[in-house]
Amino acid sequence: MNEVIKALKERRSVRKFKADMPKKEDLNQIIEAGLWAASGRGQQSPIIIAVTNKELRDRLSAANCKIGGWDSSFDPFYGAPAILIVLADKSFNTYLYDGSLVMGNMMAAAHSIGLGSIWIHRAKEEFEAPEWKKLLSDLGINGDFEGIAHCAVGYTDGELPKPSERKKGRVFWVE
Q1: Are the C-beta atoms of 154 and 17 separated by less than 8 Å?
Q2: Which secondary-structure segment (H or E) carries 4?
Q3: Mean pLDDT, residues 87-105 taken together
Q4: Which of 76, 106, 139, 155 is geometrically suited to a Cys-Cys bond with 64, CB 3.0 to 4.6 A?
Q5: Percentage with pLDDT > 70 across the chain
Q6: Closest by alpha carbon to 158, among 116, 112, 109?
Q7: Residue 129 to residue 109: CA distance in whole angstroms
Q8: In whole angstroms, what is the distance from residue 140 CA to residue 157 CA?
Q9: Are 84 and 150 in contact (CB under 8 A)?
Q10: pLDDT at 92 over 90
């Protein structure tokens, strides 16, 4: 089987990570894969914020947890030490789709190099809050960006989950 298709079929969402930080070279490969995602009219509206600073990562986790309505002891990033946040410029009419493709590429890339990942929502709500808008400003990010998602990345702690059965009746041919 083709290695790309194999990686896509074997990738799973990981919900338990080791505390060890992945190598920066590996994170860069994942980010590079995201930057090469297709985008509407080649406009490349998404950006990625790579968070490896534990203090900032933990603040993001707490904000995400609060938005999700969970007990403050819950970590919505499941212990992943690296968080790759995808945002996209809302002035592009395909921004949401473009950011989603970045996320898909990054999760497949993480799996292909032996790392686990999971798509975590609530980036939209986070980056509507003043605290996180300030982070964008502090990083020199200007424009009307919407949080698309967080790609939580790290070394998987345990076995990958088993795949669920693929639902039948999802393909319709017109020949």
Answers
A1: yes
A2: helix 3-10
A3: 98
A4: 76
A5: 100
A6: 116
A7: 30
A8: 35
A9: yes
A10: yes
Whole-number pLDDT of residue 89: 97
Q: What is the Cα–Cα distance from 142 to 49, expressed in whole angstroms?
A: 13
Helix axis angle for 95-112 and 24-35, nearest 10°, is: 140
Backbone angles phi, psi at 108, to 5 degrees: -65, -40
Give me 2's structure tokens: 């083709």
Q: Provide the pairing of β-strand 145-154 with 46-51.
A: unpaired
| Six token digits for residue 170 | 């999802």
Q: Is the pLDDT of residue 1 over 90?
A: no
Burial 62-81 (b: 16+ CB within 10 A, else e): ebbbebeeeeeeebbbbebb
Q: Are 19 and 155 in contact (CB under 8 A)?
A: no
Question: What is Dmax (Cα atoms) for the chain?
Answer: 55
Calpha distance 78→156 (Å, rounded) = 10
Which residues face 84 on adjacent strands?
50, 151
Residue ranges of domains in the chain? 21-154
pLDDT of residue 97: 98
Amino acid symbol at 56: L
List alpha helices for 36-148, DSSP H: 54-68, 95-112, 123-126, 130-138
